[in-house]
Amino acid sequence: MAFSFSFHSWNFINFLSIIISFSLMTMESTVTQAASYGSVVQFRPSSWKLAHATFYGDETASETMGGACGYGNLFDSGYGTNTAALSTTLFNNGFACGACFQMKCVSSKWCYKYSPSITVTATNLCPPNWAQDSNNGGWCNPPRTHFDLAKPAFMKFAEWKAGIVPVMYRRVPCAKPGGLRFKFQGNGYWLLVYVMNVAGGGDISKMWVRGSKSAQWISMSHNWGASYQAFAVLGGQSLSFRIQSYSTKEIITASYVAPANWNVGMTYKSSVNFH
C-alpha cells in the first residue's frame, strides 16, 4: 500500500513538532537556570575505582603544609592531616583542589583488618618522576591515578612499612562546618583570593567579585590551585563573591564577605556553602 498524506496533514505535524521542540528548549533552559541560581544541588558520591596510595612526610605531617593548592598551613585552614597529593591525572590542573575522596586499603597484607575507610581532601600535587618507571617509583606519572597521603592519614588504614598499597576510592561530598572562607593576597590593583572550606564537591570552576560601589560582577581568572584573581581597584568597598562548583555547576553568592576596610593577608568567612 502506498503511503500518502495531504499538505494540510503535513502542515499540522510540522507545526506540532515546532511546538514540542520549543517546549523542550524552554524546559531545558529553565532547568539549567534553576541548577545554576537559587536551587540546592546535592553532590553525589561516585562509583568505586581502583588506584594506589603512598605517603610522604612524617607523623607530624609538617611536610604536607602549603602545597600546590595554596591552602597554606593546613591546620589553620581547617584541613588537618587527612589530606592527599594527587597525581597529575587526578589533579586536573588544580581544579580538583578541595575535592574529597573516600578510600580503603585492599588486597594487601599491610591493610588493617576489616578494611577501615578514610576520607581525605586534595590539597597538593604529586608531580611525575620521569626518572622512575611508572610501576617502580614513578607512582604519580601519567596516566596513573595515585594518591600520596599525609603519613597520619595513611596510617589509619595500612601499615606505614608497606610504602605503597592498592586502594579502592570514590569521590564523596565534603563535609565542612560553616561557610566558605576567602583568604586575600595581592595589592591595590590585583586581588588574589584562595577559596577554602568548600563543601559539596569541594571544587571551584569559576569565580566573580563585586564591590559595593558597583552593580557589575567582575570575572576572576584562575591563577593556580584554589586561587582566583581580579585585576581591578577594589579598595575601600565591601566585597561580595559569586562561586561556581566545578562538579555540580551550582552557583552560589556570598554577599558582603569582606568589609570596606578589608586587607591582604586576612581570611574572611561567609555564611553560605555548597551541599
UniProtKB/TrEMBL annotation:
Residues 189-270 form the Expansin-like CBD domain. It is a peripheral membrane protein. CDD domains: DPBB_EXPA_N. Its main location: secreted. The keyword Transmembrane helix does not apply. Residues 66-179 form the Expansin-like EG45 domain. One of its GO terms (biological process) is plant-type cell wall organization. PANTHER family: EXPANSIN-A15. Belongs to the expansin family. Expansin A subfamily. This is Expansin. It comes from Papaver nudicaule.
